[in-house]
Amino acid sequence: MAIVNPSSGPASGGNTVLITGTGLTGATSVHFGSPAATSLSVISPTQLTAVAPAGTGTVQVTVTTPSGTIVATPSYTYISAPVITSVAPSSGGGGATVAISGTGFTDATDVQFGSVPATSWSVVSATQIVAVAPPGTGSVLVTVTAPGGISNGVEFVYAGGPALAIKLSDLLDNIAGVFHAIADACTTISGFLRRLGL
């Protein structure tokens, strides 16, 4: 008998699993259901590591040794990567609160807007995450990372509102400056005309 740790991993495979038991010397293969591990390394007569292949559902892990086949427990469960179906709003500035809807969000470990982590985020349920968009520009893909892997990406577009507001503010300041200059000029002309007795 042998023990598998961890007993779950991403459906895409690539997860390194430690199998502890007895009689593991000379092990030639490890199978996750029917598919064989992509690699294995015997550490000692009581331990070996194996890299899980891609798979789905829950499968039995078995180890083939010169003495026979060892059944490991517990069974190994493949976890699907999260899936994002929508983000709302789909555009906004840095600091916008965004609701991410989809599946497989339980135990999420990261939320990214492009290559930048969300300023903050929290898992509301297995189907929803609320995140605060970090500063950014242009169009980026929002992704969620969980034990099953990285989700698909859904587009979030950074709006140009903040930049436009800054330009409009500068324009208003310039207009105000022109009016002040005109007022000063009128005052000067008025004083000059008074001195002339006009």
Give the helices and strands, then pairings.
Blueprint: E1 2-5, E2 8-10, E3 16-21, E4 29-32, E5 39-44, E6 47-51, E7 58-65, E8 68-79, E9 83-88, E10 91-92, E11 97-103, E12 110-113, E13 116-117, E14 120-125, E15 128-132, E16 139-146, E17 149-150, E18 154-158, H1 161-195
Parallel strand pairs: 1-8, 2-8, 10-18
Antiparallel strand pairs: 1-3, 3-6, 4-7, 5-6, 7-8, 9-11, 11-15, 12-13, 12-16, 14-15, 16-17, 16-18
Describe the structure.
With 198 residues, the protein is an alpha+beta fold. 18% of the residues lie in helices and 48% in strands. The chain is built from one helix and 18 strands. The protein has one helix at residues 161-195; strands spanning 2-5, 8-10, 16-21, 29-32, 39-44, 47-51, 58-65, 68-79, 83-88, 91-92, 97-103, 110-113, 116-117, 120-125, 128-132, 139-146, 149-150, 154-158. The strands form three sheets. Strands 1, 2, 3, 4, 5, 6, 7 and 8 form an eight-stranded mixed sheet that branches. Strands 10, 12, 13, 16, 17 and 18 form a six-stranded mixed sheet that branches. The protein has a four-stranded antiparallel sheet with strand order 9-11-15-14, with no helix packed on it. The longest helix is centred in the last third of the chain and has 35 residues, at 161-195. It starts with a strand and ends with a helix.
Features:
198 residues; alpha+beta; 8-stranded mixed sheet; 6-stranded mixed sheet; 18 strands; 18% helix; 48% strand; rod-shaped
Total of helices: 1
Question: In terms of per-residue confidence, which ranges show pLDDT below 50 for 5 or more consecutive residues?
Answer: 161-168
Please summarize the sheet with the most strands: 8 strands, mixed
Helix content: 10-25%
Described by the principal axes of the CA atoms, the overall outline is: rod-shaped
Assembly category? single chain
